[in-house]
Amino acid sequence: MRRDELPSPQKTGALKSLTEQEKPVRKHYLLFDSGCVTPWKREDVTGPTMSRPQSPEPALNVQGASSIGPGDEDAADGTQHSHRMLSFSDALLSIIATVMILPVTHTNISPEQEFDKSIQKLLATRIAVYLMTFLIVTVAWAAHTRLFQVVGKIDDTLALLNLACMMTITFLPFTFSLMVTFPDVPLGIFLFCMCVIAIGAVQALIVGYAFHFPHLLNPQIQRSAHRALYKQHILRIILRGPALCFAAAGFSLFFYPASYLLMVTVIFLPYVSKAASWCRGSLVGPREPPAHSLEFFTFDLHGPLSKERVDAFSDGVYAIVATLLILDICEDNVPDPKDVREKFSGSLVAALSESGPRFLAYFGSFATVGLLWFAHHSLFLHVRKATQPMGLLNTLSLAFVGGLPLAYQQTSAFARQPHDELERVRVSCAIIFFASIFQFAIWTTALLQEGETLQPSVRFGGQEHAFMFAKLALYPCASLLAFASTCILTRFSTAIFHLMQIAVPFAFLLLRLLVRLALAILRALPRLALRPAPTPPAPGDPRDDTRSLLHPAPC
Amino acid sequence: MRRDELPSPQKTGALKSLTEQEKPVRKHYLLFDSGCVTPWKREDVTGPTMSRPQSPEPALNVQGASSIGPGDEDAADGTQHSHRMLSFSDALLSIIATVMILPVTHTNISPEQEFDKSIQKLLATRIAVYLMTFLIVTVAWAAHTRLFQVVGKIDDTLALLNLACMMTITFLPFTFSLMVTFPDVPLGIFLFCMCVIAIGAVQALIVGYAFHFPHLLNPQIQRSAHRALYKQHILRIILRGPALCFAAAGFSLFFYPASYLLMVTVIFLPYVSKAASWCRGSLVGPREPPAHSLEFFTFDLHGPLSKERVDAFSDGVYAIVATLLILDICEDNVPDPKDVREKFSGSLVAALSESGPRFLAYFGSFATVGLLWFAHHSLFLHVRKATQPMGLLNTLSLAFVGGLPLAYQQTSAFARQPHDELERVRVSCAIIFFASIFQFAIWTTALLQEGETLQPSVRFGGQEHAFMFAKLALYPCASLLAFASTCILTRFSTAIFHLMQIAVPFAFLLLRLLVRLALAILRALPRLALRPAPTPPAPGDPRDDTRSLLHPAPC
């Protein structure tokens, strides 16, 4: 019912200004375009969920049919588009995912102290807790993504229920690390399982509410004749984890190893099943769903992730990790006036120089994380569809990115403990390598299905392909080179590391130039070998260079 | 030049899949629609900046003319849409804006210790530093917003320059608090001024680069004949602050009070000039720009803010503040196994109960911040254009939101120090009141220009108007009520506060019901007075209730 069409002078004026005004149209969370519809049912798609139906022009619907008019937002039930809420949820979840890096970076490994076994053990435990909680929260985030592919639009109640869902998810890291710190106390396992059950309960509530008011659902499910079947299927997926945790909580009272086994299943089941189906798909070919349940499987809950949510979640993690060290600096490194007077004889410069390495660590950390974000941004700019393996590799890359501040902290402290220097530089190189190689792996995975996942310009032979390759290969190569150099020139490991830190940003800035040079050289070499005295193309015309190299044409 | 039209089988296949595939279209940062074009030049607007030109359908252009085709993203210079980079920047800046709340929440005001003058002074200083850095970073964020209204599209170099800009901005809080801690040491002032100058330098570089490659500019500036004038104007605005800081740095060497005066001017000048022009506008009427420089002023750099950026920045702040206390809990409140054995005789329950108040504080903090986010989200859903005063009020609201974790921390510790209880509850109520009343003020400000700023449904007389009013008035009323109750029932102040904490979320959930009831009552009262024994409308039909109340029709 279009309320703003009621005849009243105020409304008429409002409608006029509606058409005149330029309005930003946001087709942000187009649930169909996020790829959760499998190709053979595409004709069922009538139109995208107009997430911001502010403009009356029907031309804004990509598929033509205008399923939602401008008045929809003003419906009596107050339905709204979900994208801002989902961005907010992604921000919250990215903070929660990275929270357990704080104890790791705050592990006080003072240079004077021996880096002995107990500290190593503590650090290793904390790093393991960080990686596990990162994984767990990412599983919860992925489940949240699926849930809101089912829900097309939201209203106030759903927004509030989502806040409740967020609050339950925020307890995962704490309950997990409690469980790890007290592995044989039932309470630890119990609390973690209660947390998972609470999350499941709220999500089941959300599903129940959405199905109770079908206009809130994803249009494809809404129109389906098997809505009840969908509801059961979705609830089954949502409650699978909590049910296992319920059993685990029960077992914790008398036989807790069984609890751990069940919980490992809960955490790793999504990844294992994804990997298994991917392997099967690669070996056997895409799985043909049984004909009788064709319609049922067209809403593929194991389909690709929503690219916007992958972007938003990744941005959150990059932002937090990039600023992690400045948070500590702002809090701890403003010298105390008393200290300055007594310890440094009133010299503020001396007091600040003492924390000099921390500032250097921050610069390096921000620069590296920022450039890794830049590579991620460049990659996903050209990605159309984020598949499951790409999502997993992205998670792994982000997990290692979280370790960078620690790495830089350690390398900046090396100046006082020369014999650890080599080891710290190597660890830092290793972390940078893994963080960037997983990004490169996303690119490789995308290339395997480049027709679906990538835009034409970056596919093999495409114009931007070489630049993308260079952007994503830069950090892996640089860190590998640095690591190898430290094996040969052990005495200069620090200098090598700093050199890499300074050289890589410049390499990124001059990337296009360097790639063109490299391509020109690669092109000139065979020609030099085949024909004497050729005229190499002028390097000043980048289009000719790239085009002729990538689309070999007779000279 | 449309590279993907080159005749090759690979490309033809690619083009085919381009048209077949559903592609999310994102018209996110439509610079014109963010309102930076003043109305009398609207006919110059030919088309929105197609920030994600992935689909060849020209129908996607709202204004009809397709200024950028699908091949543009594949241009040799690698231009890209800017919205993801701007979202990332907003995430970074929201973290930096709230960073100085950490020392405030970590101020250890142990209940056993007397809340004496020195601690009060320390806390007050830290709160002041937090508020000032919040303000400063928000000024920097607003400047960044303006800068990227000039720049329409970005390329790799601009993305990297933006990262550099972000890094320089991240140093503002530290240098500011250093300056405040050492007010009479020239180095403090000098470092802060250097930071501001560095920001100005990078932004000037960005402007210079963008004007050097005009295709990167906002289309309106791009097509203008007075591009050089624009460039000067923009550079003047960007370098105004740094120039003043340069002078301040100079003065710091021999007469630092002058430095502080200059810096106060830098920080407050934008707000003062905004307020002055708003007052002038309200009193005198909209300012008519001089006819000869009509075209020059049509790109109004003092125009409204981009709503998407306000949303993104606000979401970042809400997310960080909501999770602030769980970060501490995850880091500090996992009991040490040794402590549990020794202090609590192996009872994990007892160990956790000791930090019980911290968990309660987290619940309350998350719930309150989450609900304030919900009110903000509901409001901005219906806001078309965010004006300057609205932006300022939003900043003030966010600044107070940042104070909520501290407030809840303090109230949760009251159990041990009864005589402070009243004061802490009152402070908490005050902070909640101010955080929510500024939100309400945004709404009021928007109502003053409702034709431009709000959608029809929420304007006065609109259908959702009453709900919006209720959502935004709930927290101010509740906190005011709680504050007043503590004056009367001083002994039960804690209970009152907890009651409010529990009641408000339920009130939000049942808001629509309560509003309809209230409206029905309001409607029934005059009718009861005017005519005996009327038949009140059935409360079960919400549409009739609201419609007949808001659009009085003869019964």
From TrEMBL, chains A, B:
Q: Which UniProt keywords apply?
A: Ion channel, Ion transport, Membrane, Potassium, Potassium channel, Potassium transport, Transmembrane, Transmembrane helix, Transport
Q: Reaction catalysed by this chain?
A: H(+)(in) = H(+)(out); K(+)(in) = K(+)(out)
Name its cellular compartments. Membrane
- Positions of region (Disordered): 1-22, 43-80, 533-555
Membrane-crossing ranges are 91-109, 129-148, 160-182, 188-213, 359-379, 429-448, 468-490, 502-522
Q: The organism sits in which domain of life?
A: Eukaryota
Record's bilayer topology term: Multi-pass membrane protein
Please state the protein's primary subcellular location: membrane
The answer, when asked if Transmembrane helix is one of the entry's keywords, is: yes
What is the similarity comment for this entry? Answer: Belongs to the TMEM175 family.
Protein name per the record: Endosomal/lysosomal proton channel TMEM175
Q: Which organism is it from?
A: Vicugna pacos
Upper lineage is:
Eukaryota, Metazoa, Chordata, Craniata, Vertebrata
